[in-house]
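To whoever is on call:

I kicked off a structure prediction for a single chain this morning and the downstream step that reads the tokens threw a length-mismatch warning. I double-checked the sequence; it's 565 residues and nothing unusual in it as far as I can see. Pasting both halves so you can look.
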Amino acid sequence: MKLSAITVERYRSITKAYKIRLGASTILIGPNNEGKSNIVRALSTAMYILTREHRFRVTNARHATALRGTRYYEWERDYPIALQESQPNGQSVIVLEFELTDEERSAFRSETHSKLTGPLALRFELSSTNTATIRIHKKGRGAKKQSEKAPEIGAFVAKRLSFQHVEAVRTAQSAQAVVDDLVSRELAAVEADPRYLAALASIAELQEPIMSRLGTSLSDTLKTFLPAVKSVVLEVSQARRYAALRESCQIIIDDGTPTLLQYKGDGVQSLAALAIMRQTTEASAAGKNLVIAIEEPESHLHPASIHELRAVLKDLSTKHQLVVTTHNPLFIDRVAVGQNILVSDNKARPARTVAELREILGVRISDNLTSADLALLVEGEEDRIALHALFSGLRPKLCSALESGTLAFEPMGGASNLSYRLTGLTNALCLQHVFLDADEAGRRAAQVASDAGLLAANEVNYAACLGKAESEIEDWYEPDVYRRVIQQQFRVSLDAPPFRSKKKWSQRMAETFKKQAQDWSDPIEAAVKRAVAAAVAANPSSAIAPAHAEGFAAFAMAIEQRLDD
């Protein structure tokens, strides 16, 4: 069973958010105070009624359940304030739609004695008397009859669905509350054990003389002021003794220094609360489909921790449904754009383009990334010049992507800038792929980015050459393409023996220059690389050496696959 959609009407700031489709991971984004959290709280309210109150205490023939005294719905707080005077009997409405498997449809008919065609939609009407009326949200034949079975239908859903709301403010107290509840439930299982009962009896026996003595002392004191008092008895009830033993745990985090959780920093407290809530929720779900709503997972976290958390949430979404509110581009789904819900002007709708996501998040990006879906990071401008010509001249699919702007090059100004540029691209809502020289600098930069959670193994290619320990993109080029240019511009012949060695291109070129009494420095190396890139761009069809054609083709296919994905 999956929660497939939610509709919210007249709840806090939301006037109407119609049929928000929910997938494995749904991201709610928008400016502050526009209603993201209110959609999540509306979902939380309906799920609370469904999963906590699924017995539906029937207060009238319409199957209303009383919510007075709970924190989930208060009409004065949750019904739009602007409407309260003109609509004193107005109702907040929340509709949840569920997709059932064929097996669940069969069980539905068996357990509720009702037939279901299409999705199951439950309508929650929250009134000014702080009661919730649950109906089957459908029109036409059978609607009234099914609504009369709301308690049975609600129980059917509750048996198969579990929900956890992780609020934006996550403190040690919130983690402690979850752990206390978990410990209480688990310890309750041993309370029937004879050894446990015998231990409690021993505690009671040890406490009894002290309580008796204190009772006598209090009795004597009270009689002085209240002569009618005959005696005072102090006792600890069995229930309180059970409760005291259940709720006396502490959370100690040892990350080098064992410390109580409440004395850790805000970031550690936030992550600990998320982790504990996830663990306890998954444990209590016990085979049910689990829906987890998380508000602003990035709160209080260092950027590196945000990247780690993104990986955790991505993994979690493969097993459960997530609904996430965020201001951080890192959590945006840049592939399934429609799974991002734009919340503004008290309404909500799916995003249509990445550009909309960038606009609502206030993302500023460079001109060449304005419409890009995939950014290809290369080490320098000369790499961009050469690869742009090679892709355009040899790979029609990549040529089309470059012309439409869906693929864009991003020169990094050196491999050492990789992590910094990856962070910027993530914030710009671009998918990224990386092409590096297969040398120490390139591999080190990739490792640093990988350790920071910025780069996956399938997001990088190297200019590797068989038979070479280190190589660069220039090693892929056919020397005849640029041989004449080097001779004319730098008076250096590439027929010299040093250029035919097994070293990487820049080392071979440096030794060749020096062998012919020419200087070699960083500026000269940059000038030579620009000249080589220009020669490649002028002759793309013959630029890749036959020995390296397979490596170039594999790299190009990897980019094509990323665009397909």
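Update from on-call: the warning came from a stale cache, not from the record. Cleared it. Sanity check on the structure: The two ends are 27 Å apart (CA to CA).
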